Amino acid sequence: MIGVLQRLIIKIILGDVLMMTMFFAQRVILGKTTFEDVPAALKQGCAEILIEIGLPEMVPAEFREKT
User: Fold this and answer.
1) Residue 45 — φ and ψ, nearest 5°?
2) What's the rounded Cα separation, in Å, for the pair 65 and 20?
3) Phi, psi at 53, each rounded to 5°
4) Could you tell me the end-to-end alpha-carbon distance of the chain, in angstroms, rounded to an integer?
5) Whole-model pTM?
6) Residue 66's pLDDT is what?
């Protein structure tokens, strides 16, 4: 059984991943970072965010097909 502290740590880490994904999506929108420069672990999530907000043209085709 996972303890309360372990669950809290997992929640914080997962929240940080979401925040970093949103951060990179915003940088792509603003033109400060290219999609290719987004860390590999965050690319799929970043693609999903960009598509969800109506900017699929900023996402490479291989990531558009996965969402």
Assistant:
1) -65, -40
2) 22
3) -90, 5
4) 33
5) 0.78
6) 62
Q: What is the pLDDT of residue 1?
A: 55
Query: How far is CA 23 from its chain centroid?
Result: 8
Cα(31)–Cα(11) distance, integer angstroms: 30
Low-confidence ranges of the chain (pLDDT < 50): 67
The predicted pLDDT at position 58 comes to 96
Can you give the length of the chain in residues? 67
Query: Could you tell me if 50 and 56 are in contact, meaning their C-beta atoms sit under 8 angstroms apart?
Result: yes
CA distance 50 to 40: 16
Retrieve residue 8's tokens.
Answer: 């809290």
50 half-sphere exposure, CB direction, 13 A CA radius: 28
